[in-house]
Amino acid sequence: QVQLVESGGGLVQPGGSLRLSCAASGITFSNYRMRWYRQAPGKERELAAAISSAGGSTNYADSVKGRFTISRDNAKRTVYLQMNSLKPEDTAVYYCYAGAVYRTLEYWGQGTQVTVSS
Fold it and tell me: How confident is the model at residue 88 (pLDDT cuts 50, 70, 90)?
């Protein structure tokens, strides 16, 4: 059974930091591209950050570039999203996504709430 379990969300003040984690099980983690999506209330889900299967390539939405960092530890089967200088507009449910490199398979986590408010 495949599971992607996010953790690390919560309430933080503007300018603060959070680190999200997504632990994967049931997949060969190193064969999957990993992404963090987010969905704010009343808005469509959007890609925040992506990382290649080996971790050598990353991409970011313009809105988070320079503030967020995606990374992964294939030995721990975990992907991270370090979020710094958080803004109220970063408030959203953050979802972990795994997409297979060699097959048409994809999985989603259940999401973790991030709220940026004073």
Answer: very high
